[in-house]
Write a structure and sequence with these properties.
- InterPro entries: Cyt_b561_bac/Ni-Hgenase, Di-haem_cyt_TM, FDH_cytochrome_b556_subunit.
- Its main location: membrane.
- Residues 13-187 form the Cytochrome b561 bacterial/Ni-hydrogenase domain.
- By secondary structure, this protein is mainly α.
- The two termini are 19 Å apart.
- The longest helix is centred in the C-terminal third of the chain and has 31 residues, at 154-184.
- It has twelve helices and two strands; from the N terminus they run βαααααααααβααα.
- The protein has a single domain (10-234), classed as Transmembrane di-heme cytochromes, Chain C (Fumarate Reductase Cytochrome B subunit), CATH 1.20.950.
Length: 235
């Protein structure tokens, strides 16, 4: 079996709460980016007729700005345990997390590598989450003075525009990398189904998140793939 061919056995990786929150986050982020483009450069003035003119673009931008704030609350309401686990893992770092990056670089450039045991979120996903949290704080925090300039000193409003641009610039870079690694890169591609349906191939999950998978096997939630292999060998 190759790294990209898996059996039809699937396991639940993400809850409905995460799937909904992730979808709202992704849609609102790209909508914010698109509606902002004609406001930042004349190169994208052709978008104004599509967005309902300058006023329509600003209105849509504000609507999606509100939506951009909601994913964390959606996840909190629909699956508080999942949100808590995410927060806990972001502040938990071990030797294996550093080893992950060494093997990840080998995998990225096509060299032989080994899977380092990871928990529910691997070290790369933790870094991605931390950077996204930072950029979200910049984007949302700077957005308020831009939206309500009369409530803030002029200097803060001016710096808010700078912070907003920096935040979105960093966020776009992270998102591009995230899309490449989760959708385009062949070894990570099966994980993409997880954020759409909540399910991923069992073999893939065991390879990439071994510690988490083994914990679920002990709880009786996932099939023991090693036991199945041993039975085939003995047959």
């Amino acid at each position: 079996m190759s790294k990209t061919q898996y059996s039809g056995v699937k396991v639940k990786r993400f809850s409905k709460g995460f799937v909904v929150a992730h979808a709202v986050n992704a849609i609102s982020f790209f909508a914010l980016y698109i509606t902002a483009l004609p406001m930042y450069t004349e190169w994208f003035d052709w978008l104004y007729p599509v967005l309902g003119g300058p006023e329509g673009a600003r209105r849509l931008h504000r609507i999606f700005a509100v939506a951009f704030i909601t994913p964390t609350f959606i996840w909190l309401i629909l699956e508080p345990k999942g949100l808590l686990r995410w927060g806990k893992e972001l502040v938990t770092w071990k030797k294996r997390d550093l080893q992950f990056f060494t093997e990840f670089v080998k995998e990225l450039f096509g060299f032989n590598f080994k899977h380092v045991k990871q928990t529910f979120f691997n070290a790369g996903e933790k870094i991605n989450s931390i950077i996204q949290i930072f950029t979200a704080i910049l984007i949302i925090g700077s957005g308020f003075p831009m939206w309500f300039p009369d409530l803030f000193p002029a200097a803060i409003v001016q710096w808010a525009y700078v912070a907003h641009n920096v935040g979105f610039g960093l966020a776009i870079a992270v998102v591009v990398g995230h899309i490449y690694l989760s959708v385009i890169h062949k070894n990570s591609r099966p994980g993409y189904t997880g954020v759409l349906t909540g399910e991923v191939p069992a073999e893939w999950a065991k390879e990439h998140y071994t510690e988490w998978y083994e914990e679920e096997v002990k709880k009786g939630n996932f099939p023991d793939l090693d036991k199945g292999k041993n039975k085939k060998k003995g047959a």
